[in-house]
Structure formats: structure tokens, C-alpha cells
Structures
1.
Amino acid sequence: MKVPFVDLKAQYNSIRREINEAVNSVIEAGSFILGKEAEEFEQRFASFCGAKYAVGVGNGTDALYFSLKAFGIGEGDEVITVPNTFIATTEAITMTGAKITFTDADGKTLNMSPQCLEDYLKKRFDKSSVKSPLPRAIIPVHLYGQPAEMDGICWVAQKYALRIIEDSAQAHGALYKGKRTGTLGDAAGFSFFPSKNLGAFGDAGAVVTNDRKAAEYIMMARNHGRKKKYEHEFEGRNSRLDSMQAAILKVKLISLEKWNESRRKHASLYKSLLDGIDEIRLPYSPQWITPVCHLYVIRTKEREKLAERLKEAGIETGIHYPIPLHLQPAYSYLGCRKGDYPVAENAAQEILSLPMYPEMSSEMVEYVCSEIKKII
Ligand SMILES: *Cc1c(COP(=O)(O)O)cnc(C)c1O
């Protein structure tokens, strides 16, 4: 049996007619940038999240960048995030002119540790001469589709007057104590990269927020700083949501809950079949969250062997992510060293993402698990 890591074609096949109609109608209307399709999608996505505003942009990286900018973060500021995330999180920080600081992940959830965050800030503000850049914001990442520990994070953020920008690129629809990601901080960046839980047929993203001023700023900033066609309040960027992508996202949003439910079903089958194997650590979810299982990430000291042998059995796997950001060549200038963030570093050695997408069958999950048991 072949088990791909994701199968975007299978999803397209399940909604082929609706997608084709949506794409055709955009072509017939001849309006390709923002417009009615984007506005409708923005409204529906905001209401899906339970937020007041969603602003469509070109991609998830820009969504994070605009979110920071909307709250005045830039040069002379410091923004804190975790080292075990995709580089887009930190690229967004650098794009604003702010400085990146890392704080380690929690060993159980692999999300931002409120304790590490507080320890860092305590030290940071204890120094007799507090030097700039000063921490102004944090970006917790809802990694693998699992909301970060927001109560603790919000508490620390409030104490130190920090803005919270959620990186929700992997967590469309996930719940933390009954609230959707995108409503747990000041603003949230979503990505609609094709393989995300809600994926376009190209690049796309959105900022979700309850802050009217932030939403208004981003609506201009994404579109050359303008409100009217040739009146520019400031220099913005070109980072708009294409009408075609918006039309596709509108169709896909209808099925998102069903797809997330499917992912959860596969995750619980993985869990029941892999439970009790000493060499494998399964993902941990606190009971007060509902994850959307963007990735199903196990941990094992035998990762290389396992990945290799699974590949031979026709099963694709991934590693998200093999090198923590503080050890990336791109960030050598930050002067971090091995051992600085041990939780993230240990995880990077052990994590393995198993196939996970809504359209996979239970038989596929069973096959993956039986092969794993053969190997270990
Ligand atoms: C995908 C992703 C992004 C960025 O999204 P793009 O749309 O590719 O720019 C940001 N953060 C995380 C954690 C992601 O997985």
C-alpha cells in the first residue's frame, strides 16, 4: 500500500464541481484582485473564527508581518517566539525591523512554555540598566494544529505589557477552552498555503483580529497604503488576496470542520494503535483544547531508521522541523549556541511527522501503524 504524506488531489476530487464553478465564475467576472470574492471570504472566515475582522493578504508570512506592524512593532523593538517553528514566524519579525528573541518550548506540548517566557522576561527586566531593544510582542505558534498554552502566555504578556500575535498558520479552527485560535491574542496570522488545513490553490493568507484600527491599517497596508484608488495614506505593500484564491477558499471553508474532524479521527486511531510502544512518544494534548491535527508528530530515538524503513514500505513521512531556528545559518548573527534551547533541540532530533490528511482511509492509518510495529 502507498501512503503519501498529503494528497491534495484527493481533496480536489471531493469538491471538484464546486471548485470548478467558483474558478469559472471569477474568470467570467474578470475581477481578479480582492473584490467581492475576497470580501465575502473575509466575512465568512472572521465569523468562522468568532472574530470581528479578517483581512485577506498574499500569504501567511505577510499576515504575521502586518499584524506586528498594525500594533506599531518595528525597529528598536524585540519580539519573542519559539525556536521550533517554521522560519516564516521569525522572518515576519525581521521584516518589521524588530529583533528576534527565542524562548524554549514546553517538553510535553512542544508549544511555547509560559514558564520559560516568564523566566526570560524576569531576567530581562531585572537588570539595573534595561537596554533596548525592549520586548514589545510575543508570537506563540499553535504548532501542529494544537493551541499554545494561552492562559499562561496571556498572563505573562499582560504583566509585561506585550502584544500577542498568534501564529495560526497550522491551526485553522482549533479551540482553546472553547475559543478559536485567531481570537486568543491581539491579532493572528493565518496561512492558506495549499497543504494547510484550509489551503488555497496557491499562496494566500489572512489576519484575524477584533481590533478595528489594526484591521483598517492592514486593509490599506496590503494594498499600497491606499483607501481610494489613487490616494495613498502611506507606503504599503502589494500583498493582496487574489479573487480566485478567495473563491476557492470560500468553497473549502464549508468543509473545514468536517475535514478537521476527519483529521482528529485519524489522530485518535494512530493513538489507539501506537499506544504502549515504549520507543515511541505520542503527541500530548491537554484536555481543554481541541486540536485540528495539521500534523501528527511522534517522537522516537530511532527516527532515522523508522523514516527509512517506512519509506521502503511506501509510507511518506516528514520532519517539522529538523533544525531549530536559533541554529540555522540564517540566524548565526544572533549568536545562539547549541544547548541554549534544549527542549527544542531535543525535539528536533526525535520528531517524525506521520501521514495526515482528511481524505486518508482508516486502512492507511492501520497500515502505517502495523509497519511501525514491525520496525520497532
Ligand atoms: C506555513 C506557515 C507560515 C507561513 O505561511 P506562508 O503562507 O507560507 O507564508 C508561518 N508559520 C507557520 C508555523 C507555518 O507553518
2.
Amino acid sequence: MKFYSTKRQSPEVTFEEAIMQGLPTDNGLFMPEKINTLPASFFENIAQFSFPEMAFEVAKCLLYNEDIEHVALQKMITNALNFEAPLVALNPQKNLYCLELFHGPSLAFKDFGARFMAQVMGYFAAKVQKNEQESEKNRNFCILVATSGDTGGAVAQGFLGVAGTKVTVLYPSKKISELQEKQLTTLGKNITAVEVDGTFDDCQQLVKTAFLDPDLQQKLWLSSANSINLARLIPQMFYYFEAYRQLVIAQKIKYPNPVVFCTPSGNFGNLCAGLLAKRMGLPVQKFIAAVNQNDVFTKYLQNGVFVAQASVPTVANAMDVGNPSNLQRINELYDNDIQKIKTDICSYTFNNKEIIEKIKEIFITHNYLMCPHTAVAYLGAETYLNAQSLPNKAQTPIVFLSTAHPAKFLDVIEPALNIKIPLPPALQSLVNKTKVATFIPNNYTALKTFLLQNN
Ligand SMILES: *Cc1c(COP(=O)(O)O)cnc(C)c1O
């Protein structure tokens, strides 16, 4: 299959090129030229599959054997999806469910994308490396990533131990939490942490400079683990199907009514994956894009015109995005027609106060603790339930996505609720580990020297 750019100013590419290149040269985003739909037999048998088995059925329907060998693809999916995504019935009377996506190694849903991408990149890198051996080149595939805290952890964990790959993570010194720092600096093996005497923007600038340095590009095989890489989008479809699979099992009926999904959104990769899942045949009645005060998407649906804004900081900080990249893909999926977008998606905005109040309320009434991003999703689901007179309301399952473990946001939750949250084992085990990082000044020559010595 071919993959094209949403801007159509750069050539079509193969799946391998789309993944290894990451972004088209024309500033667009890669899209598959065809989105196949799953056969009826898939939905008839869905309850019999395990999560990874079902994900493989979805993946091999979208990607052909010539794009990526299916035998290898199945193994990659099994390796990537080695944790669960449980569907928790928060209010069974209202048919309201929480899809917990934070049971991976970095305790956030970004693990799905990062782990699958690491597997796929490792696979394509090994192919190139095999050919290069014959010509006596011997290069590692070097991923360079700057992080403000979260993404770097998921990417580093995803690539940990993937043969033929090396990851260098740049993070701003003293500007991420101690546990976030430990998540990046205690992995060892093929993961190296570089502590930069500067801000996150400085880190990003250093990475950009490295990618523009022809000398470095010639000596190293450099790549980015960009959040808009297709290899991060595809695996995010899997858990929308997983919610449906668990509904079929829990409700003991063959076909539940089409589901309403509420996705807490920032850069809109997560929501976009849901839209792709629907295109492949997943029965979805509506998507709710729940956002914090960075409300450019809500306004876009209201006014029909998109206006980017500078991002404002909120308590749900992983969603503080004022110009979401994946909007290009959403517009593409709906032929740039706002009316078509609105038939599938609605959007609500919530402020910090509403978010914190909701975390409190749910903790008190349901004894369930959620992170600020998940609270935005809950608010979206609740607002929708109250606003709409759904046909068959009682029979329509509403699933809101929980994107991170609450313990990752102690600074927001503990003072608001006046409680102590115990650390989950994945974080607890980091406390006594020793940080290993190379400290560099905010200076490109320092980074270049480091990269040439360590790759
Ligand atoms: C990244 C992130 C989001 C936003 O996801 P997008 O795909 O960027 O819309 C929401 N919640 C958490 C915890 C995140 O890390």
C-alpha cells in the first residue's frame, strides 16, 4: 500500500519509508491511501480473541504482507502489548465505563504508541543493517528525543533492549520531577540520558539542530521518535477495539449498541486513532473530544474556522496544546468538511476548577481516583449524557479513556484531596535507583561531541 502526505506536495511512500522518515518533506502528515474495513467474521468472533490476537487481526487488515511481513508483525504486537487495558464499569446503571490505558511501563497511554513504534523501527532498522553488513558499514539506528517529562519515558522504555537501536533522551536539568528523571536515567542498556543546562525548548532546539547538521547525519543514522509518526497512531486503534471486545464479553450479547467514546485530547493523536478504528468498522455512535482550556478544537467545531492559539498551562498539562498536529489528519478523513466532522465528533472544554472538583467528587462518591486528564474525559462523558437525548440512552455504552495513572500527578491531586497516594510498584522501584546522566551545557557542539562519542 502507498502512504501519501496530507499536503500532497511530496511523493507517495511505502510503509517502511513512512515509518523511518516519520514526516513527509512538505510538512504534511502521512496517511494510508486506503483504509480497509474488517470482515463481519471479525466482529462475530471478537470475544474469542485475546487482546494481542485481536490487535493483530486489525493490523493485518490495514497493513498488507508486502508492507510488513505478517509473521513478524504478529510478534511485534505480542511484544508491544504485554500489559492490559481493563474496562472498568464506573456506573453500570448508566452504562458508563472507564478504559484504563495506564498499565504499561511508563503508566500512561503513550506506552501503546511508543512500544509498537520501537518494535516496527527495530524491525526495519535490522533489515537495513543486514544489507549494510555486506557493504561493511555498521551503524546503529539512533533515536534522538527531547522530553519535557512524559514522552521521553515512554519512548525510552519502548526501545529498551530493542536490538540495533540506541536512544538518546535530552531533558531540561531540574525542570522535570525527580521520578520522571529516574524514569529516564535508570534504564541503562541502549538508553542514554543527557541532562541539558537549559529549558525544554532548548532541548528541542538542540535536537532540531542535530537533524539539520549534514556532518552528523553522514556519520550517524539519526531518527526521531516523533509523536505524529504513523507507527504511533496505528497501535492506538487497538484499544478502541479492545473496549468493544470487553463490552461484548461483559454484556454477554453479540452486538452492543454503537459506543460513545470520550477521548481527552491535546495533540489529537488519540482521537484520530479512534476515528480510524471507526473507518475500519468499529461500531461507534459518537466521539467526544474533551479538552482543557486549550479549546481551539471546541471553537473549531463551533465556528467552522480553525484558529491556532498559544498554549496555556493547565492541571492537565499533557493536553496543553494550542495547535494540534493531528487536525490535518482529521480534516483529511472528513474531506475538510466541518459538517461531516460534526456528525462524528462533538467537543467540550473544562477549566482547572471543574477538573479538580470532579477528581474530588469521583473519589468521594465512587472511591475511584483519576488523573486530571481522565477527569476531563469523565466531564466530557457526563456533559454529553446530560445534554443529549440519545436514542436508546440506557443501552448505549459510554466509554471514557483514562490516559495516565493518578500517581503521576501527585502535585495536583494530593493537595486538592488532602490525601497521600501510595506509589504504584513501577514508580516505587525507581526511588532507590541511581541516576545516570551526562550533564551538558546548552550548546550544540557539546551535544554533537557526545553523540559522536556514544554512538
Ligand atoms: C499525551 C497525553 C494526552 C493527549 O493525547 P493526544 O493524543 O495528544 O491528544 C492526554 N493525556 C495524557 C496523560 C497524555 O500523556
